[in-house]
């Protein structure tokens, strides 16, 4: 029997993310929420025990979810199920792979397990999505085996400004790289702290070799549409849906706004009567040590 | 040059556009019913079939697609596209109450092999010549056609074709099971030909549907 190498799964694993493009991935903490997300048109759900807003409010160490919770959510829906492992916690990732999740998020929303190394994702058959705040960080995660990148934003705030900053940074750095001459790419690789071959590929293609979603602070249909207009491939919504007044309606509205992101009439129509948005926290009021985006390197 | 639409509610739209451009087609993204006007054919891409159906709910878009297919518009469905084109879905609960297109006389089961860990890349055996049209066979393409009657199949949380109706031709098999089928100008497959450089399946569809002759600005489906 031949052993399947992780590299052999590159196309199916990056390909699954390609199939999620133009869609919304929603954080859910119960099977009931997972069903609401699926009914609203989510392309996948992220199974976790506490949404980022609660992790932020309650404090303490945030870890991988209970396998019973993840099993319950897998059984509840027919769309892909993702789950979070702590940065660097390769055994949590092994457990999630054993549970049969469709994607693992090596996530700064949980407490990091390793302040030096990320998980060696090339050792897994299951695909990984990782957060990034800039192009170099995205390329380092891809080198480690990530099949999908999401900009980090600032999870659990409902403040879209950091998601905006990270997405603009990544896309701006790609545009700048594409304008460099071949002989300038060597030093670009040094500046980005990423492998030269990967840097050259991004410069040539003018885009990442994997799908780029946005995350961290999206709370309204207009937030989601703005990210799509800027060039995101899709949207993660965490606390924004189930911390709002009418989750089912808001979830559906964000899905519609993500598809019809360039049609202001549709966005206006779906933005009506959504009830209370999540209260939110201004990122500027979050003391630096409590900013999740600064976890990971 | 023909204009081929790509249903763009959600999913692998960009990849199909790139393959079609490589085969000399103009493309247009289809999100609303009037985007269908003047199209010579339509690709329904991979994605999440339940999400695509929900996004189409209330718009009449998928019903309009069916009306045009019934009037002769060629269609190519990959993965989720196959599910939406199928007359029967074996596990109807997930799509209950949602619009689909239908018209292809097959029964499919969504996500028939399990989660992402059951996804994989395997060769599929073509059961027809790689192309029926000399002009397209020598076209520019995005890659070489296989000479051995095989192409690479990328199967991602793939559906399974459990029944093939009498008017449906099998185009490709894997392990003896149908993985690509054709009924008139409609072609559909369980894998993702848009993710590999080999454009064989797109060529088969275009050639079989006679799309290379169709003027780009005249509707294919006059009623």
UniProtKB/TrEMBL annotation, chain A:
One of the record's GO molecular function terms: pyridoxal 5'-phosphate synthase (glutamine hydrolysing) activity
Active-site residues, as the UniProt record annotates them: 84 (schiff-base intermediate with d-ribose 5-phosphate)
Pfam families: SOR_SNZ
Binding site for D-glyceraldehyde 3-phosphate: 168
GO biological-process terms attached to the record: amino acid metabolic process; pyridoxal phosphate biosynthetic process; pyridoxine biosynthetic process
InterPro entries: Aldolase_TIM (IPR013785), PdxS/SNZ (IPR001852), PdxS/SNZ_N (IPR033755), RibuloseP-bd_barrel (IPR011060)
The protein's annotated pathway: Cofactor biosynthesis; pyridoxal 5'-phosphate biosynthesis
Enzyme Commission number: 4.3.3.6
TM region(s), chain numbering: none
Keyword field: Lyase, Pyridoxal phosphate, Schiff base
Record's function text: Catalyzes the formation of pyridoxal 5'-phosphate from ribose 5-phosphate (RBP), glyceraldehyde 3-phosphate (G3P) and ammonia. The ammonia is provided by the PdxT subunit. Can also use ribulose 5-phosphate and dihydroxyacetone phosphate as substrates, resulting from enzyme-catalyzed isomerization of RBP and G3P, respectively.
Quaternary structure and interacting proteins, as annotated: Homohexamer and homododecamer. In the presence of PdxT, forms a dodecamer of heterodimers.
Similarity annotation: Belongs to the PdxS/SNZ family.
Protein name: Pyridoxal 5'-phosphate synthase subunit PdxS
Source organism (scientific name): Tessaracoccus lapidicaptus
TrEMBL record, chain B:
Keyword annotations from UniProtKB, A to Z: Glutamine amidotransferase, Hydrolase, Lyase, Pyridoxal phosphate, Transferase
InterPro entries reported for this sequence: Class_I_gatase-like, PdxT/SNO, PdxT/SNO_CS
Catalytic reaction annotation: L-glutamine + H2O = L-glutamate + NH4(+); aldehydo-D-ribose 5-phosphate + D-glyceraldehyde 3-phosphate + L-glutamine = pyridoxal 5'-phosphate + L-glutamate + phosphate + 3 H2O + H(+)
Binding-site positions, L-glutamine: 47-49, 110, 156-157
GO biological process, one term: pyridoxine metabolic process
Family: Belongs to the glutaminase PdxT/SNO family.
The protein's role, per its UniProt record: Catalyzes the hydrolysis of glutamine to glutamate and ammonia as part of the biosynthesis of pyridoxal 5'-phosphate. The resulting ammonia molecule is channeled to the active site of PdxS.
PANTHER family tied to this protein: PYRIDOXAL 5'-PHOSPHATE SYNTHASE SUBUNIT SNO (PTHR31559), PYRIDOXAL 5'-PHOSPHATE SYNTHASE SUBUNIT SNO1-RELATED (PTHR31559:SF0)
Protein name: Pyridoxal 5'-phosphate synthase subunit PdxT
Organism of origin: Tessaracoccus lapidicaptus
């Amino acid at each position: 029997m031949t052993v399947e190498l992780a590299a052999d799964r590159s196309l199916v694993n990056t390909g699954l993310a390609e199939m999620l493009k133009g869609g919304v991935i929603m954080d859910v903490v119960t099977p009931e929420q997972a069903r609401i997300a699926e009914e609203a048109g989510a392309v996948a759900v992220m199974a976790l025990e506490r949404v980022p807003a609660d992790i932020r409010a309650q404090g303490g160490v945030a870890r991988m979810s209970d396998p019973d919770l993840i099993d319950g959510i897998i059984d509840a829906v027919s769309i892909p199920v993702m789950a979070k492992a702590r940065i660097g916690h390769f055994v949590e990732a092994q457990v999630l792979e054993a549970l049969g999740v469709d994607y693992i998020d090596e996530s700064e929303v949980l407490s990091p397990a390793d302040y030096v190394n990320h998980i060696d994702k090339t050792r897994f058959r299951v695909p990984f999505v990782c957060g990034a705040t800039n192009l170099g960080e995205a390329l380092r995660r891809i080198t480690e085996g990530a099949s999908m990148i999401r900009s980090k934003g600032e999870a659990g705030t409902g403040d879209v400004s950091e998601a905006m900053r990270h997405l603009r940074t990544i896309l701006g750095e790609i545009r700048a790289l594409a304008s460099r001459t071949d002989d300038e790419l060597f030093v670009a690789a040094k500046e980005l702290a990423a492998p030269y071959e990967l840097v050259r590929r991004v410069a040539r293609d003018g885009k990442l070799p994997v799908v780029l979603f946005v995350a961290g602070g999206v709370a309204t249909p207009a937030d989601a549409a703005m990210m799509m207009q800027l060039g995101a491939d899709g949207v993660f919504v965490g606390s924004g849906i189930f911390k709002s007044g009418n989750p089912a309606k808001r979830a559906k509205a964000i899905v519609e706004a993500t598809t019809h992101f360039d049609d202001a009439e549709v966005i206006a129509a779906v933005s009506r009567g959504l009830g209370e948005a999540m209260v939110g926290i201004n990122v500027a009021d979050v003391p630096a040590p409590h900013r999740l985006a600064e976890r990971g390197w | 040059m023909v204009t081929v639409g790509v249903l763009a509610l959600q999913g692998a739209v960009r990849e199909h556009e790139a393959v079609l451009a490589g085969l000399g087609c103009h493309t247009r993204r289809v999100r609303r019913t009037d985007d269908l006007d003047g199209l010579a054919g339509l690709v329904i891409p991979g994605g999440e079939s339940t999400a695509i159906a929900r996004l189409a709910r209330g718009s009449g878009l998928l019903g309009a697609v069916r009306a045009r297919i019934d009037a002769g518009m060629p269609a190519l469905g990959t993965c989720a596209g196959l599910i939406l084109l199928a007359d029967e879905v074996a596990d109807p609960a997930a799509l209950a109450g949602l619009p689909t297109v239908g018209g292809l006389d097959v029964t499919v089961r969504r996500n028939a092999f399990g989660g992402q860990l059951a996804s994989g890349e395997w060769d599929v055996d073509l059961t027809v010549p790689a192309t029926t049209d000399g002009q397209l066979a020598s076209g520019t393409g995005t890659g070489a056609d296989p000479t051995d009657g095989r192409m690479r199949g990328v199967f991602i949380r793939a559906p399974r074709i459990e029944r093939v109706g009498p008017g449906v031709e099998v185009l490709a098999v894997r392990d003896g099971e149908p993985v690509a089928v054709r009924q008139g100008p409609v072609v559909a497959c369980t894998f993702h030909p848009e993710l590999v450089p080999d454009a064989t399946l797109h060529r088969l569809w275009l050639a079989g549907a006679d799309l290379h002759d169709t003027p780009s600005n005249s509707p294919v489906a006059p009623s």
